[in-house]
Prior knowledge:
single chain, 11% strand, 6-stranded antiparallel β-sheet
Amino acid sequence: MPPHPYKPNRFQRQNSRVGMSNLMLWCAIAVTAFCGVTTADAQDEVLVELRDGTRYEGVLVRQDASGVVIKIGEIEQTLAASEVVRLIDLPSVRERYADLRRNIADDDADQLLVLARMLRRHGELGLARLELVHILAIDPGHPEANQLKTLVDAEIELQAGRGEGKPRGAPIRADDFPVLTPEEVNLIKVFETDLARPPRLELRKGAIDRLIERYGDHQLMPQTPEGIEALRRWLPRRVLDLLFRLKARDLYGDVEVQGHPRSLERFRDHIHGNWLMRSCATSACHGGAEAGRLWLRTRAKAADATIYTNFLILERFRLADGTPLLNYEEPEASTLFQMALPAERSTRPHPPLPRSAGAWRPPMTGPEDPRMKDAVDWLRSMYTPRPEYPIDYDPPATVADEFNPEVLAPSPGGPR
């Protein structure tokens, strides 16, 4: 299984810890001269330094010859031009968060708490809660983190009650989880079909006519009237083989796959239904609204839309360091499988769950577990070299996912 949802693992960590003063490191951002007239964007955050050394940080409302108006929380503050020494443009809260977070060790609860407070102060309640849950996972008895989390939870509910919608970064409801369409599910089936042992195939109406119209001049196509007439009588398996040879991806959808390719039957029976849904896709791990970077669908577990959507998510998911969950060259080393093993027997152990989730129980006992063998056999049965499905799927965004928009990167394309 991929890393724990509340362990912000998308950043490259440094071993050094930051001090309290470092939480203002963004103040060294490029300084702009205080002159002229500026129209501020509603979200332009600035730091204003006065002649007496006082500093104000807030959202720039207006800047003109008379002075500067900034908004601090819900209060507007007017600062006379004669008192302003300089105006410092600050990066966005999320940019600052990303910069600060990569310099804080994952076990530094006190500095993470300072970060959570900063996020709450700037209205990033979803991200603040993400860090607070992580703090309580590593230090369940942390009193300040518990208190702040209670406060943040209440503010999130209050926002929703006021009709302000979800705070930025709040995950979608499970009912809104996007799934692949029947056409996209069928397309994956086509790509993974083993022509030596195919499932039942059917051609859509007009498939041969479209094939002739678009690829009739190709050297692999029959050129005589007799050959074209014979083509119309070909078995669907032979037509699919021709489509593969032509690399006619625009026509793959003209082949309807009844049932499942054997490799995806193995995924359905031995992976998805056997342990993935039971151990990894629980609400406390990767099946709930707080699933971190990886969220799997849990509704209608046996439906093709769920099975194939979850497969595509696993297929395209990348860890923060670019490592895929599935290693087709060395299946036993796949991160997905290694994190399903007990920590002491894994090369990449699963991180601990938050206290509220209880103790995590690995679905496999060790490398010799029959479920590991089934998992390895499944991965080896998949088509290679791996194809890149022409499917534009946007996975549900989670709080932790906000800082890595390319979590689902297309896998390297193969000849299909």
